[in-house]
């Protein structure tokens, strides 16, 4: 009896660990395995080997097909009540400057048929672009409506103790939650990132570096207008953005996501053949002298350029030409910096040759006239000496030379 038990155990282990072709080969010789020795997963020949009577195989399961982002069959276009035009970047694009051409057809970066706003090649306007005239009173009412909406969300102003508490909880030594604003400035998709952070915290930290920091006041204005929040602290390129007392994450505005970066349109050339007010020979001589003057400063890659505008204004008090060393920067970056200097200083662009920005103060420059306010002025006073030192360490790196921005 002991021998019979051992033989049965060996037979069961053999059937359990034997391959499937072992049983099919025995069936060719007319041998039928007892049901007690056949494993459970191959007892049903129809389930494992198909229907042996008809010779058909098991129907294969269809392969998984992931949904396509361009498949909009049966989907309704997304509608957003935000009253401003949707642009890829709100700080690096000027609505007043009209392009002279497009580099690609007018493909919407939101995807075909996903948003109920047409793409003009530059933006997706809130109003119908086919309408030739828009009532000015209607635009004014829209601005008033937007202001009332922001005031309703913000509620009562924060007290000094509440503001200090929010800023303290948003600093780097308390949380790693941060939104980075880089060379493209305040992009459209960043609005969605800020609102996603506002689900968990009342204030979010925004770190600004690169080209947009030349005009920090414009960055702060665009952030407040496009998000509906309020800046409660700013030091160098670091911003603390508060969502408001009455903010409800479940009633956040609908923000469609751009699926790809649109191609930048073609704008007029920044450097003309001749500088305004000069002849061709004088222009050539000025460009040659501009490349020979000592560099005012060297611009670091992805640095903070908030003090660049007042630095150029001070240099124009004694020098006619100013050169900025841009070695290592992208050509598109220092072209944008030169365009900002032209509007903020103001000055005339001379050349971008050999990775330099050369600007001229012009013939009618008045050194004794009133100077424009500096764009590097802090909007809020530091909370304490400890916070002031922490923020300065985040803005300036000890590895950079003193004359490097």
UniProtKB/TrEMBL annotation:
The keyword Oxidoreductase is assigned to this record:
no
Show the ranges annotated as biased composition (Polar residues). Answer: 395-405
Q: Where is the composition biased (Basic and acidic residues)?
A: 385-394
List, for all copies, the residue spans of the domain called CRM.
156-254, 276-372
Q: Which GO terms describe its biological process?
A: Group II intron splicing; mRNA processing
Q: Which Gene3D superfamilies match?
A: YhbY-like
One GO cellular component term: ribonucleoprotein complex
Keywords from the named record: mRNA processing, mRNA splicing, Repeat, Ribonucleoprotein, RNA-binding, Transit peptide
User: What's a Gene Ontology MF term here?
Assistant: RNA binding
One Pfam family hit:
CRS1_YhbY
Q: Where is this region: Disordered?
A: 42-67, 370-405
Q: What is this protein called?
A: CRM domain-containing protein
Organism of this sequence: Aristolochia fimbriata
